[in-house]
């Protein structure tokens, strides 16, 4: 719900244009469309689907997105060049709502060394191209590229010129991520107050993250009167990236009383959108990334864990579950206390008496000293060893894989089922992991859909150990298993079995937890 007393800040998403310019992030048109659909579901106000003039595939993707997503405004991106404008206009002509987004540089360093044009030339080009574009669309966003490194008086003169020709939105980009928040405030305030017609248009900020200030600078722009912020999912983009959509949205949501501003972003879709973009663009998310990073809502410190178990607000200012983020607030490591271990085991229906807890705690600390983090399946196994009970529904006892270049890969696994002994299963696939998964699905009838696999190297050299994190899905609920091994196929197999075990244990206990981390 929106509050009529708060300013609405439009979220202009450029994941599919500026974000795709990240080295290695280029995606095919089909994937662009999938991401665009999720962005609309997330609640962004404007989508910039690409750069239509750059290729036929890019043009087709922008065109299809414009036709399909009728509930979101589409921005056609173009240089201040007639050919670019024509392509952007054609590509977006079927959109229910659209705008033309024109840009030209304003800093002397760009004019002198890149464009090789005078200030007068740039103003003339900007005037002519805005007037040309105005024939086709009502909404024209004009970006004075590299505004924050430009002469202030020239920026004001350029903005006055394009407003006179019909520009309706003025974007003052921090193209190199150079500005300080105070400088952003001064720039926006000066242009709004001093440019003729400046009080008749809307303002947008497009901040890059080269010095790690994209979100802070975007908030400064909001405080200086901007009503639109240009963002990318996971903060991807050229060099160090752009202002992160999820970070900006949650700053505005968490501090909306102080900022007196809000967005239409649906927090429940944040995590799914982040994961989708990460998968589609093959860009991993840093563990410590705010909001969506793996560690963003995890706590190893015993003091923090104790506080969280008593009241989440002691160490959390946002509700991860409201953002669709798995509830994984406690990570078990060498700093964890007995309370956290007892609580985690109880989540799986494992109750220990004080003497057993002490034994488990001692073994847990030994394991934590070796590998920093103890996974849930390891903790359950420790508890089983100390109580002579197999708490895990299934244990992977042995794995063999035959790989090669000329034939299908063949795998054999031996699994011990609680209360039923051991059995061996064989399977094949195009790759060793596919063959192993085939075996595991035979061994575990309750096995859920294998959704995602993350592999992380934990060391270097020939004896390097790898961490595998497998996510499975059943009835819309996600379960995650983790394993650390020097053999990454074995690690992935153990992580898959662990994820399936979490599903089974959760079902037995009647838990309603959306995700259990292993």
UniProtKB/TrEMBL annotation:
One of its GO terms (molecular function) is metal ion binding. It comes from the Bacteria. Its EC number is 2.3.3.13. Residues 9-271 form the Pyruvate carboxyltransferase domain. It is an enzyme of class 2 (transferase). GO terms for biological process: L-leucine biosynthetic process. This is 2-isopropylmalate synthase. It comes from Paenibacillus beijingensis.
